[in-house]
Specification:
Length: 120
């Protein structure tokens, strides 16, 4: 994804066709809320949902794997450019697609949290 440009509105503001996200989610709960939304899209496969389209893609899991590759490259390029805003934007794309992959593989955001905590 090409990242934010000056004067951009919230890049994800039109990505909730079902309108079921809470805009007041505290930042520490964002990953859980996002993962819950992803799981809901996986179950309900609503029309017009990008997330749902990843779960029903003709390429199967390769669709999300390709996205993870693309977003990783874009994050690396942003880092090489010392573009912190772009790096943040591309990293958010990357984390989102990684969580979609977790849902596909029947993993949970808690599995990631536990793995990281075990390394303390
Ligand atoms: N966090 C995200 C999120 N991050 C990135 N994306 C999508 O990931 C895609 C990234 O693809 P690209 O970078 O390739 O950009 P592109 O627009 O497809 O352009 P091209 O490269 O294909 O030309 C875009 O379609 C983004 O909209 C996301 N789509 C959804 N979410 C979350 O998922 C929720 C549910 O959204 P739906 O998927 O619409 O149900 C949203 O409310 C958000 O919270």
């Amino acid at each position: 994804m090409s990242g934010p440009t000056e004067g951009d509105e919230d890049p994800q503001s039109d990505e909730d066709p079902q309108g079921d996200e809470d805009p007041d989610v505290p930042s520490e709960a964002v990953l859980d809320e996002l993962f819950a939304t992803i799981e809901s899209r996986q179950e309900e496969l609503p029309e017009g949902s990008y997330t749902a389209s990843l779960f029903s893609h003709e390429k199967g899991e390769n669709a999300v794997l390709e996205k993870i590759g693309e977003e990783t490259t874009e994050a690396i390029l942003a880092a090489k450019d010392d573009d912190r805003e772009e790096l943040t934007y591309e990293s958010a794309d990357l984390v989102y697609h990684l969580l979609v992959l977790f849902a596909m593989k029947d993993l949970d955001v808690d599995d990631l949290r536990e793995e990281l905590r075990d390394r303390f």
